[in-house]
Amino acid sequence: MIDDKVFFLPGDVVTIKHNIDNRPTMVVKGKDTKMIKPSDLEDRKGFLNGIKCYWFTTTGQYQENVFNTKDLIFVIDK
Hints:
With 78 residues, the protein is mostly beta strands. The protein has one domain. The protein is built from no helices and five strands. The two termini are 24 Å apart.
């Protein structure tokens, strides 16, 4: 089985892959991680929470949100 993983880097142009009204064209800002320390004996581990993206609305307002990697697709392929 071939594992095709998609990696998003800061500056990539993406959009939501679902067909919804007014889906924005966004720019990847970076990854959002959370730190979990299960016990005092184990080291902290960083887990991916999602991909942080930003975009501007039609009125020029800056918007930012974290999306699941499965919900994003590239607008401009590399």
